[in-house]
Structure formats: C-alpha cells, structure tokens
User: What shape does this take?
Amino acid sequence: MKHFTAVTDVAHLPTLIQNALAYKTNPLMHRGLGAGKRIGLLFLNPSMRTRLSTQVAAQNLGMEAIVFNVDKEGWRLEFEEEAIMSGDTVEHVKDAAPIMGKYFDVLAIRTFPSLKNKEEDYSELYINQFIKYAGIPVVSLESATLHPLQSLTDVVTITEALSALPPMARKPKVVLTWAPHVKPLPQCVANSFAQWINAWGQADFVITHPPDYELDERFTQGATITHNQDEALKDADFVYVKNWSTYQDYGKIYSNDPAWMLTLEKLQITNNARVMHCLPVRRNVELSDEVLDSSHALVTEQAGNRVWAAQAVLAGILDGIL
Ligand code: CP
Assistant: This one.
C-alpha cells in the first residue's frame, strides 16, 4: 500500500510528470481504471481548486468521489493518543478513520497547521493518524507542512512551459519569492515547492525572502537563498510568488513590506519570466493586477493542471506503481 504525502513517496518523478501531461492530452484514456472504486475527499479546511480538480481527476478515471467537509458537517475529531475527551472533540480519529477505510478505497485529506505549535504542526499528526488508522492509501490534499499535489502541478506546469520554448543552453532559473499578505499563512506551499524543485533537479533554483522568513532547511537545501529580491529576479525564467509566515519564531508576520509585491516593473530584469502562484491570490498585495492580467501570468494554466497532477497520482495509487 502506498500513500502520497510528499515527493519522497514518488518512485520516479519524471514518469509521474509525463503521466500527468499524457492525461492532459487524453483525459479519458484510463477511464476504466477506477471503475468500482471510491475515493473519500475529507476537508478539515476550505478549498476550491484542490477539491474540484481531484473530483474531476477521479471521475476521469471512472472513480466515484465523495466529499466530506469535516469542518462543517462532521463530528469534531480528536487526534491525540490517549486523550481524555472531555472537551469539544467528539470522535477519535482511531475510531473514525478505520470506518472510512471500509467505505473508501482511497482517502484524501486536507488539513492546515495551527501556526501556534511548530513541533506539533511539523509532526504532521493529523495526516499521520489517518495513515495509521485508515488501512487504505492516503493522499494529502495539503497537510500542515506540505502541499504535494500543488507542487507536482507546479513542476508539470514548468515542464510544459519549457517544452513550448526553444531549447535552453542552461538550466531554467526558477525563483520562489516571498510576497506580503494580510494574515499569517502556512509554509506548506513554499516548503513543498522547494522540496519538489530540488527533487526535480532540472533548475537553477533561487529562494528570496526578507530576513526572518527562513524556511525549514530540510526542504530548501540545494537552493540559493538571498534577501535581495532584485538579485534573485535577474534573468529568472519562472517566478513563483507566495507568502508564508515565519518558521523560526513560528507563525508570525515580521516585516510585511509592500515593496516585496511582484510588479511588472520588477519583471523587467527577468528573462521575460512566467509568473506562478498556487491561488487564491490577494491581488495588489502579493501580485499586482498588471502582472496577473498580463501574458507573464501562468496561474490559470497552472490551476488547470491540478486535474492532470491529481489524475496521475490517483492512477499511480490504483496501479500500485507510485
Ligand atoms: N491552491 C490550492 O490548493 O487552492 P485551494 O485552496 O482552492 O484548493
């Protein structure tokens, strides 16, 4: 049995990328693969793209998808072992997860971090408890620290965009830049993007952020890290924009300098870079309208590719080949 929670669960990343692109060309080529199978999509937090793209992906494979918004419709779950459940949690995951394991063939779960307790968030208690007790493959729809379906999509999108360009004599320069935001956000997308770009190994990878926004080195190791955004953007081919809260002094906003917002003017020093963002995006806070509405923006194509990434992962699980 295999789970999908990080790039380390993938046996061969180039194959998974090519499988996703093949599904984009021919979405229904394996429409019998999931016949008679059922996936449960559990949301402990809101979602638009992840929910809809995974449902479409499952249906393209002939699989039935059932969505359960646990945060709004379910009993409040307890995740701590040996908890004395005299508070507001109603059902323990060790009781709920095995039941879901009887209803479904695959279980997919979205959770968010508390951003209050780093050790607890980075232990990935929620998704690990589902893995421990469900008894079926578990897919992360974003966990406390990682967003693997988003990151696979991102690598697929970069691969696809590169294939439309003349061959390059150098590795493409991929820049992950921090952007301002109005509230503290998880590090998941940034951690995960760094983890997958490093595993992909096909880019000159640069991360830029203000001081105090260092990410966990377990994910960033291999990237060049600079606090100088202009220096990072120079000659960039892809610019991935994302806010995250502080990792060291966990879950805080330190500087929120609006000068870090990506504008068309900043893109002048890039190599006509394509601009990516996982969405949802705070317009004119993280990215200016003029960038999002320009030909630089790859965000709609990127979000569209969520279907093919999810389909490749679900097919891999159904095939037992991930
Ligand atoms: N990018 C992403 O995960 O979007 P949703 O939160 O809408 O699923």
User: Anything to note?
Assistant: The chain has a mean pLDDT of 97. The pocket of phosphoric acid mono(formamide)ester is lined by residues 47-50, 142, 150, 278-279 (CB under 6 Å).
